[in-house]
Design goal:
Radius of gyration: 29 Å
CATH superfamily of the largest domain: Intergrase catalytic core
Number of strands: 5
Shape: flat
Helix content: 40-55%
CATH topology of the largest domain: hpI Integrase, Chain A
Number of helices: 16
CATH class of the largest domain: Mainly Alpha
Largest sheet: 3 strands, antiparallel
Order of helices and strands: HHHHHHHEEEHHEEHHHHHHH
Structural class: mainly alpha
Strand content: under 5%
């Protein structure tokens, strides 16, 4: 999605470059770094697509042409198409302060398909976890046992774990929202052992003159020593030190999410599970299994951090007990294609079931539907 890092100059009067203006507005609004990267990338592609014309010189027709190009020639997903359009509208509305309605109303929004989430069975979860080890097993256990998103798990700090009350605090999750979720008893011991090793690594970093960690919202300036404190360290620190792309300091960031994704994918293959699954499938399974166990949907909504309960309700469509009580009509057919006794009649006491089945076979040649119709006609 990203081209070169060369920025596009807006004017010759030494104003900030266009992409820098986009970055400044995004940071002023406290959008995430990933949103910044995505929006800047789409604005760059939009301008380059139109041969570096300034966005002020373009209107709805040019926007539509670019979005159509993405859909037709780029064959992008609906969510990607809408993200690109959101980025361009952000440019006009928030950066250039252009009345978007004046550009025209024929902007194309993609209709997102309604897909059901992929969910593991409890046995499949166990098989996947059985093929993971060390920190990867621990991360996967938190995804399934606490319903975390992968990035939330990677950004987890030591201070956010409450072993006594078995709770996790998720800070600035999706939508910049905090929430509290559960900590599974099965993970307490291994997690404490893991943190013991992480603390030794942190102490060594301090001795080597490092040991700092990224702090959000200028907390490093407000609390100069907080970035060295044990409580602020990541639960899953990276294996090596790296440079903060914004501050330029050498410190230890968290695990790269892609490493966990690769290990989980390997575990899924080793478990011979053919579902189109990933790390996020563990979170889907967390929600579905809680609902199957009888937990209130509002409780599950809070644990997942969903703003609207309708988002949580999608899991009711993949609950196992939603369909296990139903029987396919194909199972009602006998050898000759006639309807036979289904589970409702088979649940009768054995003596009554035998008498009823004998009657249907003798008088109606095994045709249950004919027997029922005869009964109805007799008593109407």
């Amino acid at each position: 999605m990203m081209e070169s890092n060369a920025d596009i100059v807006m004017d010759a009067d030494r104003k900030p470059k266009l992409l820098d203006q986009v970055r400044h507005v995004i940071r002023a609004k406290h959008y995430s770094r990933r949103t910044e990267e995505a929006y800047v990338g789409w604005v760059r592609r939009f301008v380059l697509f139109h041969n570096r014309r300034h966005p002020r010189e373009m209107a709805a027709a040019e926007i539509t042409k670019f979005i159509t190009h993405l859909a037709v020639n780029g064959n992008v997903a609906a969510s990607t198409q809408n993200q690109a359009l959101n980025a361009i509208l952000f440019l006009y509305r928030q950066v250039l302060k252009v009345d978007i309605e004046a550009l025209g109303s024929d902007l194309i929004w993609a209709k997102k398909p309604k897909k059901l989430p992929e969910v593991f069975t409890s046995q499949q979860v166990g098989e996947v976890l059985g093929h993971l080890q060390g920190a990867y097993w621990l991360a996967a256990m938190l995804l399934y046992g606490s319903g975390l998103r992968l990035i939330e798990c990677m950004r987890l700090r030591v201070k956010d774990i409450d072993f006594e009350q078995r709770k996790l605090a998720v800070r600035e999750g999706k939508g910049k929202k905090d929430r509290i979720t559960m900590l599974a008893a099965a993970v307490v011991g291994p997690l404490q052992e893991h943190l013991t090793a992480v603390k030794k690594q942190h102490e060594q970093d301090l001795q080597d003159g490092y040991g700092t960690v990224y702090l959000p919202h200028a907390l490093a300036r407000k609390y100069p020593n907080a970035n060295r404190c044990w409580g602020w360290q990541y639960v899953f620190p990276a294996s090596r030190l790296s440079e903060d792309p914004r501050a330029g300091t050498i410190q230890r960031h968290h695990f790269d999410e892609s490493a966990v994704q690769k290990e989980v994918k390997k575990a899924i293959r080793k478990a011979k599970i053919l579902k189109h699954a990933s790390c996020h499938t563990l979170r889907h399974s967390f929600a579905t299994h809680l609902l199957e166990a009888g937990y209130n949907i509002r409780t599950v909504q809070e644990l997942l951090g969903h703003e609207d309960v309708s988002t949580t309700m999608i899991y009711t469509h993949v609950m196992r007990n939603n369909i296990t009580g139903a029987c396919s009509p194909a199972d009602f057919l006998g050898k000759e294609g006639q309807m036979r006794l289904n589970s409702l009649f088979e649940s009768l006491p054995a003596e009554i079931e035998q008498r009823f089945e004998s009657l249907v076979n003798k008088r109606y040649h095994g045709d249950l539907q004919a027997a029922i119709l005869s009964f109805i006609n007799l008593h109407e």
